[in-house]
Amino acid sequence: MCIFCKIVAGELPSNKEAENEHFLAFHDLYPKAPMHLLIIPKAHIECFQEIDAHTMAGLTEFIQEVARRMGLDKSGYRLITNNGEDGGQEVKHLHFHLLGGGKLKWEHLHDESHKNM
Length: 117
Ligand code: AMP
Ligand code: ZN
Description:
Order of helices and strands: HEEEHHEHE
Bound molecules: adenosine monophosphate, zinc ion
CATH superfamily: HIT-like
Strand order of the largest sheet: 1-2-3-5-4
Shape: globular
Largest sheet: 5 strands, antiparallel
Number of domains: 1
Radius of gyration: 15 Å
Strand content: 15-25%
CATH topology: HIT family, subunit A
Structural class: alpha+beta
Number of helices: 4
Distance between the termini: 39 Å
CATH class: Alpha Beta
């Protein structure tokens, strides 16, 4: 079982913020912003490339609701999912990073060599 499945099953502790039958939002262990939540489907889906449109529609509503609940809907936030090897996905259970609580930086995510590609 992957670590996020263990969190869903209650076998690993987490700081939960919101949940319903299908989705769970909990605080990232190593926050990269004043507010950093991870939002996941409870079912094991490996990555964004694997999610079906129907489940994604429900997840979209859930994420918007969590953003409202955290007071981020007006101030703004960033939503990120790292997909696969080049995307830097470390945990192979689909998760969206919901980041906010302050003005976020936006920087080059790769060195300058991409200009020659
Ligand atoms: P990613 O690199 O997109 O796969 O993101 C994985 C995220 O999971 C990282 O931001 C980690 O800090 C976070 N993380 C790893 N283990 C845990 C955990 N047990 N509880 C909460 N967050 C975790
Ligand atoms: Zn899993």
